[in-house]
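DM from R.C. (forwarded with permission)

"hey, sorry to bug you on a friday — could you get me a structure for this? deadline for the figure draft is monday and I only need the backbone to look sensible"
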Amino acid sequence: MRYIHPQYERDENDDEYIWNEDEMTDVEHIIQTVSNDRIPVYYRRRLSDYAREDTRKWNRYINQTNNHQKRMAEDDDDFGGDYLYVRVKKVGRRVLFVYDKQYWDKILKSTTIKSSTNITGRIIKTKSDRERDARRSQRQHDIIRESMDQLIDEAVSREELERDWDWYSEREEDYEER
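My reply, with the result:
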């Protein structure tokens, strides 16, 4: 499928409008079609970065739609539950729309669908993430321990200095009395 992006212009009232609305690619219609027909569809972008942006944008759209449908189904038994079982993937410069009911069944059983990011469900920390966090907390603990040791050493040396001064002043008084 060939992707044609919308072209915007401004009219006399300084309002934006799309002047190629009949030619541009209707991605929402593509998502609905893939969800209904279960046939994968892709379009190619000029740059890989554009494909990445589109993937994030349409994943966010699907997440928001499914989250809304999930809330509607929880509120009312007769309404909602019309989910989009589509995953959006980036393959090089292509944006691929794939039907994946098993994935969405698993996600919809979970408690949250985060629509603000591409992450759906909870974030799982790997062993290296846990080790990195442990090293970071150990490093912070060592810094705090070093600063406390330094403060204690300063207090002890101040105390020793005062004690030495007191001893010296006592000896000086004894010397003067003689």
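R.C.: lifesaver. The longest helix spans residues 127-177.
me: no worries. Helices lie at 27-37, 48-75, 101-109, 127-177.
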